[in-house]
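Morning!

This is the sequence you dropped in the shared folder:
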Amino acid sequence: MKVTIKHNMAIELITALFRCAKNDVVLNKLSEFGYKLDETIKAIIEDFNNNMSIFIKNDLNLLVRDNTIGLLCLIYYISTRNIKNVDEFFTFLKQLDSKEFLKDCFNEYDLSENGYDLTLESDEKDIYNAIVNTNGEEEAKFFIQFLKHPEIVKSKLETLIYIFYNDHFKAYEKQIEEFMRNKIKEHKEKYENNSLKYLETTCFSSMKILPQDKPIIMYICYLVEFTTSIILKNDKTIIIYGYGYEQRFDESIMREKSKELFKVLSDDKRLEILKLLNKKQWFSNELAKHFKLTPATMSYHMNKLLDAGLVFFEFGEQNKLYYKINKERIKEMFQIALNEILDE
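The structure's back. C-alpha cells below.
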C-alpha cells in the first residue's frame, strides 16, 4: 500500500473559508478537547475577519457556515480531479455547471445510507426533513434554497471564494507554503518511523483497517489545524487532516487525556455507545437514530470518544465509514489511570 503525504493550496483555501465562518466553533473545540492554539493561525484568522467587509461576512455566514456540504464537495473535486493549485481550481470552478454542483452536493448527503429513497425531483418537504434529520435544520434550509436557485448559489459562492482569495488569503500564501513544506517533511518522517501509530494518531484510524489494495493520499491542512475527513474512491483513499493533531504525538498531552478517561465515560450515553460498538460496528446516523439524538449531539459524543482514542474509524460494506471500539486503547487508558491513582 503506497501512502503519499502532501499539501494542496486549493484545499487550504477552501478550509480557510470554513475556519473564518466557524472560528467560534473551532475555538470551543480547542478549549473542550485541551489542544494548544497556534498563535500564528489565530492572528491570521483575526486579520481575515477584522478586514473583511460586512458584505463578505454576510455571504460567508450564508454560503459557508450553513453550507458545509458545499465546501466538502469542492474539496472532493480538488482531491479527486487532480487539481494541483489555486489557479487550476478557479479554472475548474468557472467551468463547473451549477446543476452538476447541486447534484453532487445532494449525493454527498448520502441520504440513501440513512434509509431515505430520495432524488432531487422528490418533494421538497421530504428532502428538507431528511437533511434536518441527518445534518441539521440550518443546513436543510440552505439546501432548499440551493435547490430552487442553483445558478445564484454557485455564482455567489464562486465570487465569495475569488474575493476572499485575492483580498485576504493570497497575502499569506507564501508563508503557508513555506511552513507546510517543512511540516510535510516532518510528517513523512513520523510516518516512516511508525506508520501504524501515525495513522491512529492523526486520522483516528488504523492502518490495519484501511483498504490495503488502494494507494492513500494524505493532505495536511494548516489553517484548519484540527480536522479529519476520509474520502473513499474506487482507485484510492483520500485523507484530509489538520497538522495540529501532531500534538497527539506528545506523550505528556496523551497522558493528560488519559486522566480525563472517567470524565469522558461519565456520560451514560457514551457508555451505552461503547457497549453497542463492542458488539458490532455502527454508522454515525444509525447511532443517532438509535439514541434519538440530533446529528450534532451525536457528533459531539463521538468526537469525545474519538479524541480519547476509545473508538476509531473502520471501513464497512460499500467502503462506508463506521465506528469501532478500540479495546486495546481502553485497556491501556484504564491501566494508566490505575497507575496514576496508585502512584505506581
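Headline: Strands lie at 3-6, 216-221, 228-232, 237-242, 311-315, 321-325.

More detail when I'm at my desk.
O.
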